[in-house]
Amino acid sequence: MNVAILGAGAFGTALACALGHAQLWARDAEHAAEIARTRRNTRRLPGVDLPETVTVTHDLTTIDAEILLLAMPMQQMRGFLREHADFLAPRILVACSKGVDMELLIGPVGVIEQALPGTQAALLTGPSFAADIARGLPTALTIAARDAELAETLQTRLSTENLRLYRNTDVTGAELGGALKNVIAIAAGMVIGAGLGESARAALMARGYAEMQRLALALGAETETLAGLSGFGDLVLTCGSEKSRNFRYGMALGADADFNAGTTVEGAATARAVARLARERGVDMPITRMVAAVLDGMLTLTEAKGALLARPLTLE
Asked: Where is the active site (predicted)?
């Protein structure tokens, strides 16, 4: 099965590098021409050369792949699916986004299934930085699909020598792991940016993971999934490295510093969506709630810290 990556951001470009024989679609025609000419995506992933076997295009009609990897921001996916439904529907769609749709309060596979009923949909997620994948460094990810046969097919087709995929049929758990860890990463960045220390970050990660588990259970996910690559693994990576955009964003908030406004921070939208979802489902998620409140200017970081530390003492 041929593969195409729709979205020439850092992660989409990295996947093209890892897979080798693939088509890479860029929304912007000038950007596509620049990548095709230079064999580099200097705007999104500098210092990495695209294999000659990767074809770059701006024209969706030239895409002849059966498997499409949707490497685009979560909040843009629904509009893209609606705009290109006729082209996308007959193919296998693999979401590479991590987040919760702010209007529908569902994950990327859910968005695909709602927009294009009957389409084969899956999710590629887990602990990974685009630069590591592009440079061929060993990386393990989760491929999740409700249909076990589809998950196995995609696992075989998308795994490479250095990109190892583990399959899973718990799509809800995989979606939640990838989405929620970004919210906790923002909070962890706030902790470090505000100078609260490594011990505080470790405590926040542990309690944040407990929040992730609570919501997962409430939505019918398997707790084992959250303990795997798409949950715990991604949480550790994202909360512990300044390569993470969500973590850097949190650090900027904690230090009251500027942040690049053009950088996509999936966790910001997800925090707001999940805070609403948790409230509707009656799930206690204090860290997520505080992150959303800080982002919306309802609380200062000092007030959020005080509110969390003033919570009643309880069993772990």
From this structure: 181
pLDDT in tens, 53-88: 999 999 999 999 999 999 999 999 999 999 999 999
Composition of the chain by helix, strand, coil, percent to 5: 55, 15, 35
Q: Is the pLDDT of residue 9 over 90?
A: yes
Residues linked to residue 4 through DSSP beta bridges, in sequence order = 23, 68
159 marked as part of a ligand binding site: no
pTM over 0.70: yes
Three-state secondary-structure class, residue 277 = helix
Cα distance between residue 182 and residue 214, in whole Å: 16
CB 285 within 8 A of CB 211: yes
pLDDT score for 44: 93
Nearest to 205 by CA among 236, 174, 180, 229: 236
Question: DSSP label at 3?
Answer: E
162 is in an annotated binding site: no
CA atoms lying within 13 Å on the CB side of residue 245 = 17
DSSP lists the bridge partners of residue 153 as: none
Q: Is 181 tagged catalytic?
A: yes
Is 305 known to sit in a ligand binding site?
Answer: no
Q: Tokens at residue 118, please?
A: 């009957």
Residues 160, 246, 208, CA angle at the centre, nearest 5°?
A: 95
Give the DSSP per-residue string, 30-53. Answer: HHHHHHHHHSEETTTEEEEEPPTT
Query: Is there a binding annotation on residue 246?
Result: yes
